[in-house]
Every structure is written in C-alpha cells, then in structure tokens.
Amino acid sequence: MDTATTKGNKATVLIVDDSPDTLTMLSGLLKDHYRIKIASKGEQALAIAASMPPPDLILLDIMMPEIDGYEVCTKLKADTQTKNIPVIFLTAKTEVADEQHGFSLGAVDYITKPISPPILLARVRTHLNLKAAYDRLTRLLKFREDMVNMIVHDLRNPLSSISLATELLLNKPDLPLDRQQKKLKSIQTSTQQLQNLVEDLLLKAQLESHALTLNYQSTELCALCEIAIATLRESIAQKQINLITQYPPAPHRPVNVDAQLFRRAIENLISNAIKFSPSQSEVIVSVAYPDDAVAVVAIADQGPGIDLKLRERIFGKYEIGPMLEGVAQIGLGLAFCKIIVEAHGSTISVVDNYPKGSIFRIELRQ
C-alpha cells in the first residue's frame, strides 16, 4: 500500500530544477499521484521548504546557477524545520564520488539523467512511504512520552499522600486518635485512586483488544448513579459541591448493561465534573427516558467548559482538556468512558452548559 497517498491525502513533492522542460516533464509524471510544487532556483526552493505545510519530499537538481543543489541540501539539513524532509538528487553526474558526496550531505537517493519514469516513480513512492513510516513512529514515540508523563503525574499525587501520611504515623506514634484516623483515611483514598487508575488502564486495554466480554444484566440507571455518587462523597464534600440528582418518578425503567463497567463510566464522568468545577458550585446528575433513546444519563457542571475544537478529540486516548492549577488529570478517563459506552452500542458527547460549564451525555441505544 502506498501510505503516502491513501484516503485522498496526497503527499507533496517539491521539484527543484532550473530547466523548464525538466520541471514540465517531472510535474507531468507525478501530478496524478502527488501534489506538486516547483522551484527553478535554490533560494526559492529553500523558501518553499520552510513554508507550512512543508513538502514531504524534494527532487533536487544539482547543477543550478547561484546556489547549486549541494548547497541547497546542506542548508536544508542544517535547519531543524526542514532537516527531516527526504531529498533525492537529480543529476547528469555519474561519477561514484559525486554520488558519495550527495549521500554525505544527507540525501536519501540519487537518480541520474536522463530520468527513467518507472525508476523515478518507484523511488519517489518508496521514500514517501519511508517518510510516512518515520513520521508515524515519531508521533508514536511522542505520544508514548506524553502518556508516560501524564500517568506519572497522576501517580505522583496519591503516592505522595501515602508516603507523607505513613511517615507521620511512623514518626509520631502518640499522634491523637482522630488525626491517626484522618491519615489512615487519606492513605485509603489515595490507594483507591491508584487502584482505579490501574484498573482503568487494564480494562481499557481489554476492551480495545476485544478480550473482555460484557456481562449484561437488567439494571436501574438511577440506582447505578447513586452508587457512583456514594463513592465520590469525600470529593464532593471536600470541594463543597452541591450535587443535585434529577430522576424521573419511580418505578424506574430497567436497562440491559454491564452494571460494573457502566457504573465506572458514570463515576468517571461525575468525578471529572467535580474535578473541574469551582468550589461551592453545582453538579447535576440526571437520568431520562426520551422517546428517541432507551435512556440518557447527563452530568452537568459549572466548570470552564470545553472549546469547540477540543470537543472533537476530548474522548481520544490520553487527550486532556485545559490544564487547571491544582487539578491532577490524565487523558484516560474520558477515553475509557467512550470505549465502555461504544461497547454497549451507545454514544457519548459533550455540549455547553449555559451560561458556563459542560454537559456530558450518554445516550443508551439498544
């Protein structure tokens, strides 16, 4: 597969040659497969290469007036913005020393004139695919680095709390009983945070690999919300959140879900709302049974809200929203919720909560 041209996303090739006939010929060969940019001088080529978005590959003639191809390549490789663009030299020079010199400057290939169209097309395709693979690997490594940093960030707070509380209990055995209980409670809460993080990571991996079978059972969503809220009572009290529930009159309609996983998704959304809400604000948890869905669970907060562009990727893996001072966060909770909800054949979304805040909605469709 030509990874550089899949799904209509054509790669861009910059052709640099001082011969109009060569530019016309090369453009004609490549235009059906790639986006083409042309330059007849070295300085023009450098300016195009430094523009955004940069070309994915450069076909570079060596023998040009003013600045030759060797100097252009040297300047490209010296610039952090252009150094990773692959350069293929095009030249009538056939000496081995010339070829060696081209490679020593950082070129990835060397095609001699007169140019054979099949060879040119094959070399361009090969190096664009290699560039696409390199870019994917670079993004993956950056993603892994960011992921590790975020996980470490989220691990540090509970581990620090456990360490400080344990140290205090060990160094002060005569600590008043009420303070001992408070420190033990802190250790218990921090331990639970660590356990939840590990479980979320494992469950997410199982769900993504389809290694986890959902255990469907008849469940009342209102009761499930109450269980989720009960596990967050300490966080609610700590921030003095006025948590309001809005349920339809009993008896409540049961739904078929994996109660444990669905409760975890609801708990993550409520926890997220508490985390990003200002102290003494409201969080509303509601359940409804509209005509166009089996059920809807909505969690509304009065936090900073989510930018429209960010909404398109907020449920992505390890994507995080705006960083708030004093708020520990990892881009895992919302991705975890999305995987669980979609595993149930349902949808999750976020909309504005006027005048301020966000509303996360789970629409259960079975």
Summarize the structure.
With 366 residues, the protein is α/β, with parallel strands linked by helices. Helix content is 48%, strand content 18%.
Describe it for me?
This protein is of the alpha/beta class and 366 residues long. 48% of the residues lie in helices and 18% in strands. It has helices at 20-30, 42-50, 69-78, 96-104, 117-171, 177-208, 221-231, 233-238, 259-276, 308-311, 333-343, and strands spanning 12-16, 35-39, 57-61, 87-91, 109-112, 216-220, 242-246, 254-258, 282-288, 295-300, 347-352, 358-364. Strand 4 (87-91), helix 4 and strand 5 form a beta-alpha-beta unit. Helix 9 runs antiparallel to helix 11. The longest helix has 55 residues, at 117-171. It starts with 11 loop residues before the first strand and ends with a strand. The model is unreliable at 318-331 (pLDDT under 50).
